[in-house]
Backbone:
């Protein structure tokens, strides 16, 4: 056991340093002065260099060679560390540092280009980031598909081919349901303005209702909502729009799903490889089931309707049923993060196909905007008006997160499976949700999935919690039942 003990002591410091690096990213999005960007790029690079050195330290290889797993937890820790070591040792230290510096610079350039609707100003930086990620992917993949090497960073075990098959099964039924819904009369929508103070106060109440622990977390504002950290420091951000309080409320619930997963992991796994979510897809399953299957349910929106009336007074929606339809209104829109449940996955599939083509070299960066706009018209039936509503809307590619986008739809698929199992386990759940009480739902998720962190592989994690291997059927059935009911199909 001496080798395992030494390895885990070394790993604990590595995990702690990774948390510090993550806090630099949180600060860059929330608090950092605008002029600090060049220095922050250097700081990111320095941290990446230190972390890469630790992850490739020859002693890690020696410890892995000698260590024995005494139980399932030790076996899982060794699996994670071995995977990280194998990947990291294939990536030159110079490349890891350059990637950290480039993505920090790219983030600032993307934000400015987005604000100024200037795609041309961002493309050279995007090309640089893509080239570096291609180099990294080639080093890791060897003779295998480079895109799979990038995807594996976020969803271990998944492949572009397997996801393509799953998404191909989703697409026709989503497109058909979308067409049927958009052919029906639309529900009422919100009108008027909703003050920021009221939105943020109700946003905090929603976070608490879904179990977010503010003793080990905090809520801040950011352009792009996100969750950051794990263990005893798990932070989220949200955003406000005076004309659209749902953006604030459901961004908050979504990020609380991510944060609650991290806060729910058994504290015995703190600062170990098991002390974080199993994958980005599993992580997204938590944020999506919190936001959609629970937060947008008929029962919970009935409670939220009363909370909004208490906060904002009469806002023009007649009753709880009309409010439920309003919350789940399907309408044309450009923005992925603001898309309704029905159309959200079509936004993700667009990005998945484009980034696979970019990584493969089948699509030039200079042609990306045109390819995006053409695909958007084909999928949604109307044209992109501004780059900020199109190819510049997401932060991900500026941060080098190629392979990340498909985990959003995979998370929805996982959430569909988990929701089906949850409803079977707690058949009277709507009675709770109608009172704004999510404790039995979130408690079931914590007991069956969240507490285990990275103990199991992603597919094993969902299979253990749901009782069956994940597939797209439950998500499609849920969406078709829900929107057929709302729109009278």
Residues:
């Amino acid at each position: 056991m001496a080798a395992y003990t030494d390895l885990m002591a070394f790993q604990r410091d590595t995990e702690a340093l990774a948390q510090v690096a993550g806090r630099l990213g949180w600060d860059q999005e929330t608090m950092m002065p605008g002029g600090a960007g060049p220095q922050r790029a250097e700081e990111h690079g320095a941290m990446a260099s230190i972390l890469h050195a630790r992850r490739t330290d020859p002693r890690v290889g020696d410890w892995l060679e000698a260590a024995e797993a005494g139980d399932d937890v030790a076996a899982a820790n060794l699996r994670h560390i071995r995977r990280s070591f194998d990947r990291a040792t294939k990536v030159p230290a110079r490349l890891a540092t350059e990637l950290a510096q480039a993505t920090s610079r790219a983030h600032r350039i993307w934000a400015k280009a987005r604000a100024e609707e200037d795609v041309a100003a961002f493309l050279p930086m995007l090309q640089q980031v893509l080239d570096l990620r291609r180099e990294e992917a080639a080093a890791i993949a060897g003779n295998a598909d480079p895109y799979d090497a990038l995807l594996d960073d976020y969803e271990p075990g998944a492949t572009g081919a397997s996801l393509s098959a799953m998404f191909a099964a989703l697409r026709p039924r989503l497109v058909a349901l979308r067409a049927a819904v958009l052919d029906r009369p639309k529900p009422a929508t919100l009108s008027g303005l909703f003050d920021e103070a009221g939105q943020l106060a109700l946003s905090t109440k929603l976070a608490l209702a879904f179990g977010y622990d503010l003793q080990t977390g905090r809520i801040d504002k950011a352009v792009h909502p996100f969750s950051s950290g794990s263990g005893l420091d798990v932070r989220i951000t949200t955003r406000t729009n005076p004309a659209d309080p749902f953006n604030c409320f459901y961004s908050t619930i979504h990020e609380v799903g991510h944060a609650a997963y991290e806060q729910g992991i058994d504290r015995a796994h703190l600062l170990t490889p098991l002390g974080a979510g199993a994958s980005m897809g599993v992580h997204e399953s938590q944020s999506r089931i919190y936001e959609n299957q629970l937060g947008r349910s008929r029962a919970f929106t009935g409670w939220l309707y009363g909370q909004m009336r208490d906060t904002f007074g009469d806002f023009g929606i007649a009753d709880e049923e009309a409010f439920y339809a309003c919350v789940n209104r399907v309408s044309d829109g450009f923005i992925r993060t603001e898309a309704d449940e029905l159309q959200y996955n079509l936004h993700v599939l667009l990005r998945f196909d484009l980034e696979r083509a970019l990584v493969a070299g089948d699509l030039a960066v200079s042609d990306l905007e045109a390819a995006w706009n053409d695909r958007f018209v084909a999928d949604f039936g109307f044209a992109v008006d501004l780059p900020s509503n199109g190819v510049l809307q997401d932060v991900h590619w500026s941060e080098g997160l190629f392979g990340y986008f498909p985990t959003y739809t995979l998370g929805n698929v996982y959430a569909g499976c988990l929701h089906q199992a949850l409803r079977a386990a707690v058949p009277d759940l709507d009675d709770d949700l109608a009172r704004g009480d999510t404790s039995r739902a979130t408690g079931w998720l914590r007991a069956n999935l969240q507490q285990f962190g990275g103990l199991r592989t992603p597919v094993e994690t969902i299979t253990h919690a749901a009782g069956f291997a994940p597939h797209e059927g439950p998500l499609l059935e849920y969406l078709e039942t829900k929107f057929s009911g709302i729109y009278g199909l």
The mean pLDDT is 95. The longest helix spans residues 2-30. Residues 2-144 form one domain. Strands lie at 219-221, 227-230, 233-238.
